Every structure is written in structure tokens, then in C-alpha cells.
Amino acid sequence: MVTGVKRDINLLKRVEAVKGDEVTVLDVSLDKNREGLTRLLADQVQVRYFDHHFAGEIPGNEYLDTHINTSADVCTGLLVNGYLAGAFLPWAVVAAYGDNLFDSARRSAVPLGLSDKDLQLLKELGTYINYNGYGASLDDLYFEPDQLYLLIKPFSDPFEFINQSETFAVLQEGYASDMAHAGKVKAEIEQDEFAVYLLPDEKWSRRVSGVFANDLAQKTPSRAHAILSAQSDGNFVVSVRAPLANKQGADDVCRQFESGGGRKAAAGINCLPQEDFDRFVAVMGEVFL
Question: Which pLDDT tens digit goes with each residue over 177-200?
Fold first, then answer.
């Protein structure tokens, strides 16, 4: 199992595999993992790839099985759910909520016949799991992602995880505290079409950047949002959300910067130099005005 913080996405370079091995890749851009993928395929490693981020050219190779869909209404959890023929549908709903795809989550949940209260619980769980992935390093997180996966894995039913695991309460409390801090931050730039928020160099701001951006997108669906979290070196980690009313353009903004990437509705920049702030705001204007 190879994983890391939300923005540690070049994971295949860390995978050591040989002919006869099978590798499953989940929720990281093929374009950002092209070198590692090419190496594995050359070694005749069977790779099954699920993702919804920008992929670029997908190689044709007998050892590669791709399930990639960059539609703004799809997440990797929903792609896996289709592959598994709905075997763990409640967890796919959790995943869709975590990716801020509330409409897709509700549509997918229809066969489950859940109450509004139960849907709210799945939405909270998805939000908290997503929230736990954001940070400059593993030290910023409440749970390292591989540890959180192992805590979740025994539960085929997310409601059992919510009710039986202390992990849910830890994340719930952390999320509430961090969002309370974020709620006190005023926009640095606020226009009808987009807004930019600057967060301080604090652990809570690094943890909350993605979910704060998602929350703002839900509250003002006609506006794009950018959250810039200050780092100790003076540079920024950036989360961008396209307007929910038109989920296009977030990746167009972020890919114009060296460490940027993502998908149409949600994207980010791992390191935005302080001197590029004005250029970033200008690009936001070009894409969303």
C-alpha cells in the first residue's frame, strides 16, 4: 500500500513490482504518474487504473486496464462502484460526498432508500475522510492515510464504522474546530465571479483548505473560490474550486503553474511562489470572469 497526503500524488515512482504482480491505482492522475506507469508496464506488471483527474494521453498496452472518466460529476469511488456492480454502494456515496459531488451522491444513494438523517451521516463521513488528507506533511493530519484506511477496512457498512469506531468522533471534532477558525477569515479578494482567501501558516489552515473551499462552493455555487494556505517559506499551497453551477476551469487555472493539477471542478497547486500571487489572481480572472 503506497499513499500519502492529498498532494503526494506521484505514487507509482515508489512502487516496486515485477512481472506477475498486479497494481491497482486509485485517484491519482495518470499524467502525473506517467514515468512510473511506463516503467511498470515495461516490466509486464498488470496495472488496473481508476481515476477522474486529467490523464493526458492514455497508453495502449496489454498490461494496462484503465477506468478513467474526467467528467465533473464523477469521482473515483463511483468508478470503482461501477466496476464492482454496486457491491459496496454506501461507501461509494460516502466517496462522492467527500469529493463535494452532492448531487451525484444523492442520485447514487436512491437505491438504498436512506432517510435524510442517514444521508447526512454519510455526507459528514465523506467530508471528514477527505478533510483528513489535507496537510503539508503527515504530521499535520489526525490519521496518516494508510492508517485511516486500515481503521475503515473492517467495516463493509459505513454506518457500522460511524457507530462503532472512535475514529469518526475524532475527525468530527477536529473538523468542527478547524472550520470554526476558517469561518473567521475574510476574503482577500471577493468578486461576483471568484473569491480568494488567504489562510495563515498553521496546522489547522493546512488541514482545512480543501473542505473550506468545498464549503464555500456549496454556499455560493455561482462563484469560483481559491484558498491559499501560507507555508513557513512564505509560499502557498492552493485549493481551487470551480463554481458548482458550472464545474469547469479549476484544472485550467492550476495547470498554468509548475506544481498544479487536478480536475475540472477541483484542483490545486502544491507550491505557489509568493511572487506569483498576482499572476495567480490574474489567471483566476481570465478563466472565471
Answer: 999 999 999 999 999 999 999 999
